[in-house]
Design goal:
heterodimer, A: nine-stranded mixed sheet, two-stranded antiparallel sheet, about 30% helix, globular, B: seven-stranded parallel sheet, 9 helices, about 25% strand, elongated
Chain lengths: ~260, ~325
């Protein structure tokens, strides 16, 4: 079974406080902000590794990212993926979800297709949660989102749980397919020093547009249908009264006010 | 082919003959938006045996209800919905298609946008038009600290999904407009997969239900030990502990403690938000609060823009001090 996992490197949420908006260029300044694998994508990778170990086959990870995203893909290899493909080309820069999905789908086709494509249900940065369904659409495959359980077999359809507003659907769906997963699905494995050393031996390949063959008009900033018209700090709904002083003095003032208001 | 006038389409998501609140919220906002370019508004209803529901939708301020009925649309199955909507949009060329960012909506909208080769803004918290009907969708990013305004300058239709709970739902009034029945062409192969069963899980009980005091924490608490200060504070104030998503992912908090988009709604008389950024996904779950207090080490944190009182400092210092002061 050939399994492809789509991974996105995202700004480390622990560093979000350091993200600044450049008011001149309307771009994000990411100085000092680390990069990690999008958390839900790790659950997708874990699911892929479990499927491979149960049914045989290989796990390939693909990521459309700047050239410096290598360490993130290395981590995926250390977790147990067999091969990693970094899709990086200036032509991809600024793609919106349609362009991104098109690049990922083109790369998966260039890899000879896949029986199972796994994604995280959403990313923590852009959070559009659109790419998995759009990859499926470009490849003409069925997809399910919010997947919390996968029961797979070597031949025949999978049985998958897909979360909905109040419960979940139990769905029979046959490969080739695309699933995007939620964290309830599994617990991603920890990486050991041995795994990191093993990963050094595994192929980490960078593909540009020539290898990806994403020669369509929706790729890249200029040709993406959506455009960033503006970036701004959210409007202030209120102006909080900031309590002055040391943590102790602030705490004392708050306690006093809560007491006067009858909260304790 | 019946004539369809509406430029703005709102997908009226129905399951078992019930339209989701998210769709009614969108109808209200779309009605307001339509005024600027002087456009007409349609609710698009897909299913089977829905004539009565279609007439009922006429009471929500729409100009048209576009009703497509087919036995393969009886149960919501996204691939069939996408195919049907792509046919309708291809024939009638709306300028705008809006859907709720519901469990099904966030699957349907991107597939539909990719099929129509158009742009989609996801999880919007606001929508506005310019005077020529250019749609600007406001989307929170990076923990809500930055908002992006997304446009779709040339591709049509312009599409967006909107977070449930952001806009007030449309209220039923006098029925106006007309129901237009449209045909769609579907075959069993379009279903994509087979739904064997729908398992309803009643929402787990949560201490947050009806809580008058909510102490909510975020990622910034940094570790499980400091997280344990929250239950202490909640206990001192006779309240319940809430959470944003990251602490649930970290295992510090339970799923039924999450407040916001995919969690609970609360209406406390006192809300204290500790070491959380003030993300729109969280704030949307706080309805009609009384006193709002924010505690964050970053004086620029967005949470302070939603609070009455702000304390700046490390939660690990302020909370123990606050607990002592409250006990005195």
């Amino acid at each position: 079974m050939k399994i492809v996992v789509c991974l996105k490197p995202v700004p480390d949420p622990k560093d979000w406080g350091k993200l600044k908006l450049d008011p001149e260029t309307k771009t994000l300044v990411r100085t000092g902000v680390g990069t990690v694998i999008n958390p839900l994508d790790k659950h997708a990778l874990e699911a892929a590794l479990v499927l491979r170990d149960e049914l045989g086959g290989s796990v390939l990870v693909v990521s459309m990212a700047p050239p410096d995203a290598g360490p993130v893909l290395k981590e995926a290899l250390a977790m147990g993926a067999d091969e990693a493909y970094l899709l990086s080309d200036r032509a991809f820069a600024g793609s919106d979800t349609l362009g991104t999905a098109h690049v990922l789908a083109s790369a998966i086709e260039a890899l000879g297709g896949s029986d199972v494509i796994l994604c995280g249900d959403e990313t923590i940065d852009g959070g559009t949660a659109q790419v998995s369904a759009q990859v499926a659409e470009f490849l003409g495959l069925p997809n399910l989102m919010h997947v919390s359980h996968i029961q797979a077999q070597a031949e025949g359809p999978f049985v998958v749980h897909s979360q909905v507003e109040q419960g979940h659907l139990v769905v029979e769906i046959a490969p080739p397919l695309v699933l995007s997963v939620v964290k309830e699905l599994n617990t991603p494995r920890y990486v050991t020093m041995m795994d990191i050393l093993d990963a050094e031996e595994k192929p980490l390949v960078t593909w540009d547009n020539e290898q990806v063959c994403a020669g369509e008009s929706c790729v890249g900033l200029a040709d993406s249908p959506t455009q960033m018209a503006d970036l701004f700090a959210p409007p202030k709904k209120k102006q909080a009264e900031m309590l002055p002083g040391t943590p102790r003095e602030q705490a004392r003032e708050l306690a006093g006010r809560l007491r006067r208001l009858g909260f304790c | 082919m019946p004539e369809v006038r509406s430029e703005i389409w709102v997908i009226a998501e129905q399951h078992g003959g019930q339209v989701l609140p998210a769709s009614l919220e969108l109808l209200a906002k779309a009605r307001e938006l339509a005024a600027e370019p002087g456009w007409s508004l349609a609710a698009v209803l897909l299913g089977q045996g829905l004539q009565d529901l279609a007439r009922e939708l006429l009471t929500y301020g729409v100009d048209e209800v576009l009703l497509a009925q087919h036995e393969l649309l009886t149960e919501w199955q996204t691939p069939a919905q996408v195919k049907a909507l792509a046919q309708l949009a291809g024939e009638h060329k709306p300028q705008v298609i809006l859907a709720g960012a519901t469990a099904s909506g966030v699957d349907l909208a991107p597939r539909l946008a990719a099929r129509l080769k158009t742009g989609l803004s996801a999880h919007c918290v606001d929508l506005e038009f310019d005077d020529r009907g250019g749609l600007f969708a406001v989307v929170p990013g990076w923990g809500g600290s930055i908002m992006a305004k997304i446009s779709c300058p040339t591709a049509r239709p312009q599409m967006a999904t909107v977070l449930p709970g952001v806009f007030a739902p449309a209220q039923a009034g006098e029925a106006k407009g007309q129901v237009i029945e449209l045909a769609v062409d579907l075959s069993p192969d379009d279903l994509g997969y087979k739904v064997l069963e729908k398992v309803e899980v009643p929402p787990a009980q949560s201490a947050l239900d009806g809580a008058e005091v909510v102490v909510a924490g975020g990622w910034g608490l940094g570790n499980e030990k400091d997280w344990q200060l929250l239950p202490e504070l909640a206990q001192a104030l006779g309240g319940a502990v809430g959470s944003t998503r990251p602490p649930v992912d970290e295992g510090w908090a339970q799923e039924n403690q999450m407040i916001g988009t995919s969690g609970r709604s609360v209406s406390p008389k006192l809300y204290i938000g500790v070491a959380l950024s003030g993300n729109a996904h969280h704030l949307v779950g706080i309805k009609n609060p009384g006193l709002m207090v924010g505690i964050n080490k970053d004086p620029q944190a967005a949470i302070f823009d939603h609070c009455d009182l702000g304390l700046v400092g490390e939660a690990g210092e302020i909370l123990p001090a606050l607990l002592e002061e409250l006990r005195d």
